[in-house]
Amino acid sequence: MTAEIVYEHPLNTKIRTYLRIEHLFAQLSGLRQAEAEAQQLSFFSTLFNLLDMLDRNDIKPDLLKDLERCESQLVQWSTHPAVSDQKLQSILQQALRYQTALLRCGKLAVPLKDDKFLAPLRQRFALPGGCCYFDVPQLQYWLKLPAAEQQQQISDWLAQLALTEQTLAFVLNFIRQRGEFMLLQAENGFYQQNAEQYELLRIKYSQDCCSFPTVSGNRYRYAIRFMQLSEQDGRSACSNDISFQLACC
Prior knowledge:
Elements lengths: L3 E7 L2 H19 L5 H18 L4 H19 L7 H20 L5 H4 L4 H8 L11 H7 L3 H13 L2 H15 L5 E5 L3 E5 L5 E7 L5 E6 L3 E10 L3 E4 L4 E7 L1
Antiparallel strand pairs: 1-4, 2-8, 3-6, 4-8, 5-6, 6-7
Helix pairs in contact: 1-2, 1-9, 3-4, 3-9, 4-9
Family: Belongs to the ZapD family.
GO biological process, one term: FtsZ-dependent cytokinesis
Protein name: Cell division protein ZapD
């Protein structure tokens, strides 16, 4: 079976930040069970990159605004006869729970930023080569702890981020479901259209087309150009027509 790839492109700064944070959470999930030392170091590096992202002051307010939009949209949908009231109520309750929890919590990830073990490591990891063991002997010691002890501590750390991860997943899932995939044609590998206040483009294409999409644009207009790898230039524009599916969210 031919593999299909879904490429996502943000059309504003907020969604760009959301996708970067989601990507870091996915990396943490893949690295949390790592046993090789290099992968364990990658776990800490990814964790500190995530904490740097969560230092932004706009993430929590943006999540709260999006939860309010979700709530308003769900209330509107509740009047539609084709919408399952039971499922809608479940999703609405989820949105309200996340909204309440975010309002009650302080600044995102503060316990991890103030953690007595993690905070010094975070400072060293910010420097090129700063995670050498002569700089952080406590890290070398931690890496030699029994796996069960390491995993328990990792679980405790990630539990401090669970609310942010779950809320972000809920909001992004809601945004993604606003758009349905439509089959389109990129003539000579190029397609453009008005954005109509969309926030996210989702492009589904076959790996067999031997190309990949690049997007330029903003909330008003966007252009999709399919490119192919090139040994001479790194990449070059495709000149053939390419079928793809597009969801505007």
